[in-house]
Design a protein that fits this description.
alpha+beta; six-stranded mixed β-sheet; four-stranded mixed β-sheet; 14 strands
């Protein structure tokens, strides 16, 4: 499925709006996630059960560290406004400042300055998470970007955003534990093997 399969919702004399096209796609195809990054529509089908299970497994260490206690909050699928006009993304998991309600920019997208961490769990569009979104989140100056790469069974931690990229990009394999930067608001350690295992389909 791509944005090209959706009829143009505007008359010829009306202004072009990617946001309106994104809304049209979501209305016609419930469950699809539509993001605008770099002036392009990214359309993702509903996640499968292993994807959702991995996110649930990931949420535990953040909650146990007290990052949902008021000064910060932990959310799933909250939109972040990105530089570029209409651009926005919808990360799988985020750690945000507790006053995020005061920083709504447009629609349901919030000021990137409120985001301490964004996290993505890859689906079929894994290249978007590992390439397209790296530049987008770095340009928005999100301090920490974590990617659970289910295809290659690795965990990526990117920090130090500068000039549209991340100055530090570390890749971790099962058997490792990863301490995330304290700048997110608390000490959080991720068990790579447990996270990768949660994202695998369960076979009878």
């Amino acid at each position: 499925m791509s944005a090209a399969s959706v009829e143009q919702p505007f008359a010829d004399d009306e202004p072009f709006s990617l946001t309106a096209i994104a809304d049209e796609i979501m209305e016609r195809h419930p469950g699809y996630r539509v993001e605008i990054i770099g002036g392009h529509l990214l359309v993702t089908p509903s996640p499968d059960a292993p994807h959702a299970r991995a996110i649930n497994r990931l949420a535990y260490p953040f909650l146990e560290a007290g990052l949902d206690d008021g000064e910060t909050e932990v959310f799933q699928n909250v939109s972040i406004w990105l530089p570029g006009g209409e651009d926005y993304a919808i990360p799988d998991l985020v750690v945000v400042d507790g006053d995020i309600d005061d920083h709504l920019i447009e629609g349901t997208a919030y000021d990137p300055a409120c985001f301490r961490l964004v996290l993505e769990v890859t689906s079929g569009n894994w290249k978007d998470d590992l390439k397209t979104k790296v530049g987008a989140y770095a340009q928005a100056k999100v301090p920490v970007y974590v990617v659970v790469d289910r295809k290659h069974q690795r965990l990526h931690v990117l920090t130090e955003p500068i000039e549209g990229t991340y100055g530090t990009h570390r890749i971790h394999s099962p058997g490792e534990t990863v301490d995330l930067p304290d700048t997110i608001g608390a000490k959080v350690t991720l068990d790579v093997a447990a996270i990768i295992e949660a994202g695998r389909p369960r076979r009878p």
